[in-house]
Each structure stands twice: as C-alpha cells, then as structure tokens.
Amino acid sequence: MWGWHGRAIAARVVATDGPAWLRVTHAPKGQIIDTFWTGAVQAHQHIPPSIPHPRLRRWQDWTSSRWAYRAELYDHVDADTVSDSATVTTSPILPASWWAEVRAALATIAPVRTQRLTIQPGFLSWAMPHYLGISHTDYTGIPWTTAHGDFHFANLCAPQLTLLDWEGWGLAPPGYDAATLHTYSLLTPKTALQIRHELGYLLTTAAGRYAELAVITDLLNAAAEGAHPELAGALRQRAAAILEPSHLTKSPL
C-alpha cells in the first residue's frame, strides 16, 4: 500500500516475532517535515496504551546520497478499517459500543502533554481569511488540546476500535478529531448526522465550531492542491452554515 503522494510504502510481513506491518517513509535530505517524520515514534513514547493503537515494535533510520529513510515495524492489526478512503460515500453501520470507544479514546488523547502541532497557527492565520474570509486571531483565546490529527474512517478499525496512522498527532483546537471525522463525512448526510449525534458535545461549543472551521480550511486548501476536490462544495456550504450569524450563539448542527 502506498502512502500520501508516494511518501511511504507499507505491507504485511512476517517478522521473527510473528505477523507484522512494515512501513517505510522517505524524504529528500534537508526536507524532512519533523512532525510527520517523528510522529509514530513519539506516539509510541507518549500515547497511553489504553488508547487502542498498533504497538510500534522497532524502527530504523538510514540514508543514501540524496534521501533519508525510516522503517517502522508494527504489530499487525487483523481488523478492517471502517472505510477504504477518508471521504465516505456510503454509511457504515457501527455498534453503539464502537462509538463509546471513540468517545473514551478522544477523552484520553486530549490531555496528553506534548509540544507537537497537528495544524500550524501560522497556516490558519493565512488560510482562514483566504478561504473563509474570517480571521484566525478571533479564536486565539481558545486553548488547544491534543488530537490524533487524521481522525477519519480510513484510519479507524471496527467492530472494535483501533486507531491507525499517528504520524500527525499533536495540539489542535479542542474537538479537532470529531470535526475531522464529521467533515470527511459531509458527502454522506446520514453518516454526518450520526456523527453529530454521537460527538455533538464536542462540536457544538465555540471551540468545536472553531475546530470545524480549521478542518474545513485545511481541506479546502488540500482540495485546491488536488486532494479530495469532490468535497469542496460541501465544505463551503458547511462553513457558511457555521458562520451564519444566527448560529454563532447556538449549535449549527
């Protein structure tokens, strides 16, 4: 399996201590994005084991004349992800117990201490006015909490929850993970409605609305660069609903 833009490749392997998942990432020397390069190892060191995620068994770095490489060997996860892609087009059927596990995991992730950033305030300072016509500085009084950072159905396993792909975890607006799951589901109204039902307590606060606007901004920027362009219309509609004056003091859901 290839990762984003061919930056990584991964496959099921048989290691000396049993079935495993091997992932190899590469980047040009001097152009390593530290957040993504170190995310898995730092998650292994700091994310509580009570949060269901694959154990990182070991890792190794090496270089060639132009490239840096990192190999990571994980426990193999037998469960399937809820979706094959981040953007869902059919509604998954998930038990109430799964949603309870999601809520428990998000509550445990949020207070994890870190200096890592899932999304950069500097990016939001530029992108929010550019894509939404609002100022990031209007929300600077909201303290950020820790997030998985890429919380969509292609990174979540079922029927028992396992959270995959921790390379981008770090600080973000509170409710960022719930907002990510909801935003990627906008093309499937039934799923979006269920997420608002299950995780609405994270989305209906001022911080949750800001988190959703931050996710929408990030995905509009990604769509402009060719990623998930089919989401762009729904993203703009959702942002308009959140920003409607009558919704600023009540739930936009």
Quick take:
This protein has 253 residues and is an alpha+beta fold.
Low-confidence stretches: 246-253
CATH class annotation of the largest domain:
Alpha Beta
Mean pLDDT: 91
The rough form would be described as globular
What's the β-strand tally?
9
Oligomer: single chain
Radius of gyration (CA) equals 18 Å
Question: How would you characterize the overall build of this protein?
Answer:
- The structure is a single chain.
- With 253 residues, the protein is α+β, with helices and mostly antiparallel strands.
- It has 2 domains: 72 residues, Phosphorylase Kinase, domain 1; 168 residues, Alpha-Beta Complex (Aminoglycoside 3'-phosphotransferase, Chain: A, domain 2), CATH 3.90.1200.
- Helix content is 37%, strand content 19%.
- It is built from 7 helices and 9 strands.
- The protein has a 4-stranded antiparallel beta sheet with strand order 1-2-4-3, with helices on one face. Strands 5-7-8 form a 3-stranded antiparallel beta sheet, with no helix packed on it.
- A hairpin with a 2-residue loop joins strand 1 and strand 2.
- The longest helix is centred in the C-terminal third of the chain and has 19 residues.
- It is globular, with a radius of gyration of 18 Å.
